[in-house]
């Protein structure tokens, strides 16, 4: 069984993107696709990092745990809201903390917005950042528009059949990249 970690990026009060992280956890577990862990950046409550992990003389247990979670995951799903055309500082902070852990890591991106464009403006900047550090960003995306109407606070989609169909394709692409990477090791 694959190990997939889901990064829930938003740390805002009243955040809605976490609904999609919960959905993916449920979807992957209910369909026996992967062992899943949600890495919730809100609960980690990290400070702004001044250096990469390998250069921090006394890293905290939470920092080391995050590094292990990323390193040990076969693949990652990043769930990010779009804030003013970009992704949250909390996500950039965690991406920049690590380096080797991201190298050749298959990553699928789920974007979320309150509006009709489904976070489409955040994709390019996040892809570029992940590519620059050597991550394998999968071509499939999972855009979610009007989050408050499409998912409830427990991660249940308003149209389960259509959402599961979209998720099946997105997850299949992530699994393909995970398996391709494993064959190359």
TrEMBL record:
SUPFAM superfamilies: Flavoproteins. InterPro entries: Flavoprotein-like_sf (IPR029039), FMN_Rdtase-like_dom (IPR005025), NAD(P)H-dep_reductase (IPR050712). It comes from the Bacteria. It holds the Pfam family FMN_red. GO terms for molecular function: FMN binding; oxidoreductase activity. One of its GO terms (cellular component) is cytosol. PANTHER family: CHROMATE REDUCTASE, NAD(P)H-DEPENDENT FMN REDUCTASE LOT6. This is NAD(P)H-dependent oxidoreductase.
């Amino acid at each position: 069984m694959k190990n997939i970690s889901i990064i829930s990026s938003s740390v805002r009060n009243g955040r809605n993107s976490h609904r999609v992280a919960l959905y993916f956890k449920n979807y992957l577990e209910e369909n026996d696709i992967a062992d899943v862990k949600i890495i919730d950046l809100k609960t980690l409550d990290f400070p702004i990092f001044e250096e990469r992990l390998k250069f921090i003389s006394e890293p905290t247990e939470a920092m080391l745990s995050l590094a292990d979670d990323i390193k040990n995951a076969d693949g990652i799903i990043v769930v990010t809201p779009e804030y003013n055309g970009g992704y949250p500082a909390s996500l950039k902070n965690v991406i920049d903390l690590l380096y080797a852990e991201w190298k050749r890591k298959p990553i699928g991106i789920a974007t979320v917005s309150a509006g009709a464009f489904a976070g489409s403006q955040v994709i390019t900047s996040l892809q570029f950042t992940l590519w620059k550090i050597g991550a394998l960003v999968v071509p499939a995306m999972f855009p979610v528009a009007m989050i408050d109407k499409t998912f409830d606070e427990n991660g249940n989609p308003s149209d389960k059949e259509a959402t599961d169909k979209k998720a099946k394709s997105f997850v299949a692409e992530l699994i393909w990249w995970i398996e391709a990477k494993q064959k190359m090791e």
